[in-house]
Amino acid sequence: xxxxxxxxxxxxxxxxxxxxxxxxxxxxxxxxxxxxxxxxxxxxxxxxxxxxxxxxxxxxxxxxxxxxxxxxxxxxxxxxxxxxxxxxxxxxxxxxxxxxxxxxxxxxxxxxxxxxxxxxxxxxxxxxxxxxxxxxxxx
Amino acid sequence: xxxxxxxxxxxxxxxxxxxxxxxxxxxxxxxxxxxxxxxxxxxxxxxxxxxxxxxxxxxxxxxxxxxxxxxxx
Lengths: 139, 73
Description:
The complex is a heterodimer of chains A (139) and B (73).
Chain A: H1 7-20, E1 24-31, E2 36-44, H2 48-62, E3 70-75, E4 80-85, E5 89-95, H3 101-138
Antiparallel strand pairs in A: 1-2, 1-5, 3-4, 4-5
Chain B: H1 4-29, E1 32-37, E2 43-44, H2 50-63, E3 66-72
Antiparallel strand pairs in B: 1-2
């Protein structure tokens, strides 16, 4: 499902997340295997892909069954990191300390839902174009 | 007019309030990791556990020296 979406859709989704909440500094989107799909906002310059893989591995360890939604928030002295794993995606974002975790997760869920809807719409659209392409190639 | 004992008691009360406020502030600022799987109750990981330490290290890395990023795969 994830691979059918254009990369720009992932980028736009993260930018929308940053617009939804002014508290969110930066965001990452990965697939459940830990491959980094997109990033936006203020994030470390080095080791982003590696950090993404390690975060996904930690979430997998917390819920070994796989596929179950997992929410993790980690508060440090400098800020907070939120991670949300769902069926196909893992989203991570960083914020300052003074945020309401419930609101951050709400926005993350909303954006992941939009990504799922876009992917489903894309899947429906692809078979509809095939017969035309086939007809066009035969003409 | 209050006696020295009463004044001391009031000052002691203020000191306790300040100490309690500092304690609360320290607790709020203490690093912590909270996990919620599916629709279950959220649980706070023991901050000395390996999983909590690893996640806090990742969080510190993600928050460390950030710069503007916009990358699509």
